[in-house]
Design brief:
The chain is α/β, with parallel strands linked by helices and about 375 residues long. The chain is built from twelve helices and twelve strands. The strands form three sheets. Strands 1-9-8-7-4-2-3 form a seven-stranded mixed sheet, with helices on both faces. A three-stranded antiparallel sheet has the order 10-12-11, with helices on one face.
């Protein structure tokens, strides 16, 4: 496959980040339209997108509803947290990174009762502890976990956690922001009631909206629970069902770009095809960085292929700011770390990036290390 972004010689700096991400030229070109929110073509596009998202989640039985929500991914998460938990409900959040903490913060801002079960950032949630927490606290109605914790790049065992949550008869919410579309997730098999991701992650659309995929039976029970007008998931769903439209100004350009991004995902072989490219990106970066002497933060068996955290070299000559700036000057954008107990930086493997981009980045990293005189 060719790097469509490079075609025409107008490639921007590749973004080796968790988002915003590099998108294809054709996805960007799809936005050169001004469609009205009631335009029949636009309404058809929303309908197709909603159907295709369900197919990506393996909803063969027609049990789920896909609901796009304006804003960044956080808005879609907040729409689920704020409008699916009853007034007397209680949320348990399994936390092993910054995005888990963010869900708990939302509950606190929204004054929703919340318990946090926290695990080290370099390990997955302990299933025995999850089971004990559910057994011990009958007030817990909902459980939330992040699928790929982008803080580190760890993949959490959402299927095993889902089995425990379902056994305990609770509602299960998965933040699958950074992996959905490139990490196979079967909603029903994982026992998921609500899943959230956004347009500009592995589906490679442009930023502007996120989406929730909700089990219809669970969603139907949530009428009147919303604590926000604009983020009301139930009303957004009802609006889309009644006239096919968003309730408020839709992100028209981002939606038509997303339609194109979904076509390109299919052309690449769907979730499996995209996973293969991202895995190849990841393996290329890992091999090249290890060869130079960099070390990853996570144990290899916990590391996913979305984003990798690398430890700062011990050499005091290493300054991340200087490393970042020099890479940026060479045309490569990496990302600072977010891990709380170790100095790390991150390299993302997602977006319209290919093994050739990874090799270019590795060359630039090697040059920069040499320029800085850092010993690895
Ligand atoms: C797992 C996870 N959750 C939530 C978010 C927040 O998404 P956004 O920055 O689009 O609001 C991100 C962003 O990278 C993420 O990786």
């Amino acid at each position: 496959m060719t790097d469509t972004n490079a075609a025409g010689g107008w490639k921007d700096k590749p973004l080796f980040t968790p988002g915003p991400l590099t998108t294809s030229r054709t996805v960007k070109q799809a936005m050169l339209r001004d469609l009205g929110s009631r335009d029949f073509e636009f309404i058809r596009t929303i309908r197709e997108i909603r159907q295709e998202l369900l197919a990506l989640g393996g909803d063969t039985e027609g049990e789920y509803e896909a609901i796009p929500m304006q804003g960044s991914g956080t808005f879609a998460i907040e729409s689920v947290v704020s409008s699916t938990i009853p007034p007397n409900g209680k949320l348990l959040v399994l936390v092993n990174g910054a995005y888990g903490h963010r869900i708990a913060k939302m509950a606190s801002v929204l004054k929703i009762a919340c318990a946090v079960l926290e695990f080290p950032e370099d390990s997955t949630p302990d299933l025995g502890a999850v089971k004990s927490a559910l057994d011990a606290d009958g007030a817990i109605t909902h459980v939330a976990v992040v699928s790929c914790e982008t803080t580190t790049g760890i993949f959490n065992p959402i299927r095993e956690i889902g089995a425990l949550v379902k056994q305990a008869g609770r509602v299960y919410f998965v933040d699958a922001m950074s992996g959905f579309g490139a990490v196979p997730i079967n909603l029903a098999e994982c026992g998921i009631d609500y899943l959230v991701s956004s347009a500009n992650k592995c589906i490679e659309g442009v930023p502007g909206f996120g989406f929730a995929i909700a089990r219809r039976e669970a969603l139907e029970e949530t009428e009147g629970y919303a604590r926000s007008l604009s983020l009301d998931l139930f009303s957004q769903w009802k609006g889309l069902e009644s006239n096919g439209q968003f309730r408020f100004t839709p992100p028209t350009h981002a939606i038509v770009a997303f339609r194109q991004a979904l076509r390109e995902l299919t052309e690449e072989g769907g979730v499996e095809g995209r996973a293969a490219r991202y895995r190849a990106n990841h393996e290329t970066i890992l091999a090249g960085m290890r060869e130079m002497g960099f070390k990853e933060y996570l144990k290899p068996e916990l590391q996913g292929y979305i984003i990798t955290s690398f430890l700062y070299p011990r050499d005091p000559k290493f300054s991340f700011e200087e490393f970042y700036r020099r890479l940026n000057d060479k045309g490569y954008v990496i990302y600072p770390g977010k891990v709380s107990n170790a100095d790390c930086f991150r390299i993302g493997h997602i977006g319209r990036l290919f093994v050739s981009d990874m090799r270019d980045l590795l060359r630039a990293v090697r040059e920069t290390v040499e320029e800085l005189g850092v010993k690895l």
